[in-house]
Specification:
Elements lengths: L2 H12 L7 H25 L2 E7 L5 E8 L4 E4 L11
Antiparallel strand pairs: 1-2, 2-3
Amino acid sequence: MTSKTLRSYLTRNVSLPETVGEDDINYLGFLFESLATRDLRIYAQTLDGDIFHYHDKSDLEADLIIRLHYGRWAPVLYYCLSNSKRR
């Protein structure tokens, strides 16, 4: 999906003006990640769990790690349709 296509999709489905620029779309991505992290933190806390970020020296990365108190865990990755650099 190109940036122009994403802008068109967001305009029709999220009621954004046609003048949404690349900086605005990046801002919306950061806002989405922050809100998703907040919501996942609330859900994890109700299960007595924690949220962590993970990035190591060999460039392995997870946007979030949800770890529950009894040892179960799950990695979480956020993807943006306009960002083709993500793995």
